[in-house]
Write a structure and sequence with these properties.
With 403 residues, the protein is an alpha+beta fold. It has one domain: Beta-lactamase (3-Layer(aba) Sandwich). Helices cover 33% and strands 13% of the residues. The protein contains 14 helices and twelve strands. Strand 1 and strand 2 form a beta hairpin. The chain is globular and about 55 Å long. It starts with a strand and ends with a helix.
Length: 403
């Protein structure tokens, strides 16, 4: 691999044939206002891009290092989805089974018939948690489970879809604890069964307290002025929902302990497991995990049945496919987003992954044999298709076409 040493603090490696990704990565800093970021791509099981650059603080004093860790926001959901897929392959759970079969206390407030598939596909109506989950409660997984089991669905499960912004991870965590023979949390399961076996980098949900503060990139939120400047880049119904504090949209996004978003990587929050939102790690670890799935999952013991489930079309709600939270037509399945009209991110509909708030994205494209991840520390307005990320993704496909 050719080593890049650039005076603008951009470093890494690219395999011959993927130089266009490198050029677009550099342009993100020279033309698109990037502060610090990392991008990693695997193709056919081989790492072909591993780039990092810029600064891990937004005052541009601390260079981004090879071992820098960064908050990935909802890219965390995809890591949880892969963990649950491993559990599915081992026979720990069935996507068609009722959640209450594994977690009897879940069968409250009209949730008795909610299936694992409905829950993981954002169709359970549980995008909001009415009870206040303090840091003390979140540190106690039993207390968290008891609180979310009492939640009443906002719509009849299975009839509609609504992005479970933060809440999904709490349900995934308890489901994993119930089905795993060792009763591990989903953060621990990801470490034991996904990250360590692949040995591709670091990723944590519940970041160890002994990790030095200066290894973790600072997150730059976008301010109100920038939000207004880019407001036209968001669907108008989503904007209207965010402006109404009583709406399902605002209630789902503006969760007390996770707002403003940069709080998630603060020392008091990052040690907690908020599986839908506070994963902290390296893009190369995310891309490595997705690469294993893009190549069929064999090295993780993923069965063909599980891969068929992950690559199949997303389940369609019985009444409406427009998302009740983000207000566009969405396709979601088994803990992942699938390509949908607002975000047609891959070479085919068999791909699966999750974008993260502010511009991050990670996904598997089985048809292209690729695992991809990009994470910045400067957040931008939008729910997908950030110009920095899109430029890298499109460059990747251009490179693949020339191979």
């Amino acid at each position: 691999m050719s080593v890049i040493v650039d005076e603008s603090t951009i470093h890494g490696e690219v395999e011959p044939g993927f130089e266009k990704v490198e050029r677009e990565f550099i342009k993100n800093f020279t033309d698109r206002g990037e502060i610090g970021a990392v991008c990693a791509i695997y193709h056919e099981g081989k790492k072909v891009v591993d780039l990092w650059g810029g600064y891990r603080d937004f005052k541009r004093r601390l260079p981004w290092e090879e071992d820098t860790l960064v908050l990935v926001f909802s890219v965390s959901k995809g890591m949880c989805g892969m963990a649950l897929a491993i559990a599915h392959s081992r026979g720990y759970l069935d996507y068609e089974e009722k959640v209450a079969t594994y977690w009897p206390e879940f069968a409250q407030q009209g949730k008795e018939k909610v299936t694992v598939r409905q829950l993981l596909s954002h169709q359970a109506g549980l995008s909001v948690v009415d009870e206040r989950l303090s840091r003390k409660v979140l540190a106690d997984l039993d207390a968290t489970a008891a609180a979310i089991a009492r939640q009443k669905p906002a719509w009849e499960p299975g009839t509609r879809i609504g992005y479970h912004v933060v809440s999904l991870g709490f349900y995934e965590n308890e489901l994993m604890r119930r089905v795993d023979p060792q009763h591990r949390s989903i953060g621990r399961f990801i470490q034991d069964e996904l990250i360590r076996p692949l040995d591709g980098g670091e990723f944590y949900i519940g970041t160890p307290a002994d990790i030095p503060e200066d290894r973790i990139a600072k997150i730059k939120d976008f301010g109100a002025l920038e939000g207004l400047r880019h407001i036209r880049e968001l669907p108008l119904p989503l904007v209207m929902g965010m402006m109404n504090p009583l709406s399902l949209t605002a209630s789902s996004f503006m969760y007390t302990l996770t707002y403003p978003p940069r709080r998630l990587c603060g020392p008091k929050m990052r040690v907690l497991e908020i599986p839908a939102a506070n994963g902290i790690g390296q893009a190369r670890a995310v891309a490595r995990a997705y690469s294993a799935f893009a190549m069929g999952g064999g090295e993780l013991g993923i069965k063909e049945e599980t891969m068929r489930e992950l690559t199949a079309p997303a389940p369609v709600p019985s009444k409406e496919s427009r998302d009740k939270v983000i207000k566009v037509e969405v396709k979601a399945s088994l803990g992942f987003m699938k390509p949908f009209p607002y975000f047609p991110f891959s070479s085919s509909d068999r791909a699966f992954g999750t974008p993260g708030l502010g511009g991050a994205f990670g996904y598997a494209d089985p048809d292209a044999g690729t695992g991809y991840a990009y994470v910045p520390n400067k957040m931008v307005v939008g729910i997908a298709n950030d110009s920095r990320e899109k430029a890298l993704r499109e460059a990747m496909y251009e490179c693949l076409e020339r191979l």
